[in-house]
Design brief:
By secondary structure, this protein is an alpha/beta fold. It folds into two domains: 222 residues, Rossmann fold (3-Layer(aba) Sandwich); 84 residues, no CATH class. The protein is 39% helix and 19% strand. The protein has 14 helices and ten strands. Strand 8 and strand 9 form a beta hairpin. Helix 4 packs parallel to helix 7. It is elongated. The chain starts with 6 loop residues before the first strand and ends in a 5-residue tail after the last helix. About 7% of the residues have low confidence. It binds iron/sulfur cluster.
């Protein structure tokens, strides 16, 4: 019998409306599931809508449509939902109150969630600090955020997220504001905690290399839609959607692949002869949202939204090229 996913997201849509202007669809029909003990990466450029997905899952924004189920249940009450679904923010300094000690940041969620009593809250605080490799725990608990390094602050933020013993951790660019030298340490820590606590982890990032390393599966988002998804190695080493190919070729250390991609693209364009001479820059309407940037764009890309064929490997790409089995 297959396990029910911890969190299921079905057709999630978020529209933002500013007075006097047309509404902007930031997230469009996004569907996925998070499973216990697994990491799913959500990658894309800034403005792609990935942080809005996280905010909707955290109940910080109200979806316009779609459904989010926790443990198979709809409409879970706020208190239970927030205990089960915790978030690690991008900026650990902004997410911690400079006026309070580390101990205060951890004791409060422990007590509010009922995971500790007044009698054992100090011991539970020390356990949390030890679990994120911070010590001596009594000394760290007395410090304020400005007395810690960026990496230590993010460890405190992770410990605070773990205090209510959540089932789901949403990590929104959790290392992008940290020194490069400690990013892998923090990601390795989250990976270990995910294993130990059977957490369902959503890792939001623009970094394909760490997504491949730490996530079993990857989804790629562009202008509010998931354009590609599948097992990490498949998506990142053999991207099918032209947008993912662009991200992969622009990744640090991908100079060789960038050259290769350019050559392959030139060869394909010469061979296909189907590309229209003029691809309209306008990206509204029913067609593919990537068409203004796509080197493979065809007439039909402007006329109809691409279908999403799924390969046997579970690798899918929202692109007309693959609907015909003629991937780049
Ligand atoms: Fe490019 Fe067309 Fe595929 Fe969109 S559907 S990514 S425009 S080839």
């Amino acid at each position: 019998m297959t396990e029910t996913p911890v969190l299921e997201v079905d057709g999630l849509t978020v529209d933002f409306t500013r007075r006097g202007t047309a509404s902007l669809r930031a997230v469009d029909q996004v569907t996925f599931a998070l499973e216990a003990g697994h990491t799913l990466a959500l990658v894309g450029e800034s403005g792609s809508g990935k942080s809005t997905v996280v905010r909707a899952l955290s109940r910080l924004v109200v979806p316009s449509a779609g459904e989010i189920r926790l443990g198979g249940a709809r409409g879970v009450r706020d208190r239970a939902y927030r205990r089960a679904v915790q978030m690690v923010f991008q900026d650990p300094f902004a997410s911690l109150n400079p006026a309070h000690t580390v101990g205060h940041h951890l004791r409060r969620p422990l007590l509010v969630s009922g995971r500790a009593t007044r009698a054992d809250v100090e011991a539970r605080t020390a356990e949390l600090l030890a679990s994120v490799n911070l010590g001596p725990t009594a000394d760290v608990a007395r410090k304020r955020p400005h007395e810690l390094s960026g990496g230590q602050r993010q460890r405190v933020a992770i410990a605070r997220a773990l205090a209510p013993e959540p089932a789901v951790l949403l990590a929104d660019e959790p290392v992008s504001m940290l020194d490069v030298s400690i990013r892998l340490e923090i990601l390795a820590l989250m990976d270990r905690l995910k294993e130990q606590r059977r957490l369902a982890l959503l890792y939001v990032t623009h970094d394909l290399a760490t997504a491949r390393h730490f996530a079993a599966d990857v989804m790629v988002m562009y202008r509010g839609q998931i354009v590609e998804r599948g097992p990490s190695d498949e998506v990142i080493l053999r991207p099918r959607h032209p947008y993912t190919q662009l991200l992969a070729s622009a990744a640090p250390g991908a100079a060789g692949s960038r050259e290769r991609a350019r050559e392959e693209r030139a060869a394909r364009l010469a061979a296909r002869g189907t590309r229209t001479a003029e691809v309209r820059e306008e990206e509204s309407g029913e067609g593919c949202r990537f068409r203004a940037r796509c080197p493979f764009a065809m007439d039909r890309c402007a006329r109809r939204p691409p279908v999403v064929p799924i390969a046997a490997s579970g690798h899918e790409a929202r692109c007309w090229l693959h609907a015909e089995g003629t991937g780049p």
